[in-house]
Amino acid sequence: MKKLLATVLAASLAVTLCACGGGSGDKGGSTTLPKSIEVQLPASAGGGTDVAGRTLVDYINKNNDTNLTIVNNTDGGGVVAYETIRTNKNDASKILFFHSTMIIKYATGLYDQSPADSFKVAAAGLPTEKGGYVLVVPADKGITDVDGFIEAAKAGELKIGVETGGSSHIMTGIMSKALGIELKIVEAGPDTEKLTALVGGTLDCALVNANQAKQYIEAGKVNALACFSATDEGGRNSVVPDVPSFPELGYTDCVFGTYFYVLCSPDTPDELAEQIHDMYAAAAEDADTKAILESSGFGLSFAPYEDGAGIMKAQQESLVSVCDELGLKQ
After folding, report:
1. How many other C-beta atoms lie within 10 A of the C-beta of residue 71?
2. Separation between Cα atoms, residue 182 and residue 186, nearest integer Å
3. Domain 2-129+257-326 top-level CATH class
4. pTM for this structure?
């Protein structure tokens, strides 16, 4: 399992050495970006993904002639947003900003189109943050560390909230296997809803992004027990630096890296897709933008345009293998 999980990051990086262009299927069209571009973002307003998307767009709109407008579209668990872009014209008038969850939905059978084969990858953002999602429990449960969590899980059924087919779903499978426990998986929606349910007493635990968890931790409403690491080298999340990582506690399989992707319809000309890449890459390197992203736990570095398609393909192959091994295919 550890070897398999490591490829989610390592294989994606290695494949860039032999990636051959940003994709295929160009069918001509304008090489000038539209003045206005709609950015479909399959996440709720105010969440970590939304903050990352809007932060990048703010910089882009201030430094380019093209104006990008975020549209939060969570219909169908994100599938409506995916299909809006996949079936769009090849003029880059609409693009998708999202992350590895899209691939997980395909790997678990919740989306029937292969992301790596059905879109033009304009940009692939690799995480610079060493830590990942945080395991939290209600403070009033009296669980303060991973050992106590394992003991409670073995003593009785604990309900863990996930967004079915999302990152928290696959990480729950990875964590349960690594810790040698069984948890009752409950559909709980995005992180904001998971945390509300935790505090309300309808969930016993959840894996959530550190940016969302921080305010609940500081308010004493939840206890943070450990965090995933982005690679098998380990590392804590800089947003909650006092929370130990699973790898440093000996659970070295608890590794998951979230990649962000900017996608266009499959027949979008490379000339347009590369211009979009360059805008996002420049935004991620801006000092002020970088500071906001890193403080939110979403530090990114966009790979060269020609490597994007290969990175997405490698991550998809890895995540499909992981989901198959964990039995998460619907």
Report:
1. 12
2. 13
3. alpha beta
4. 0.82
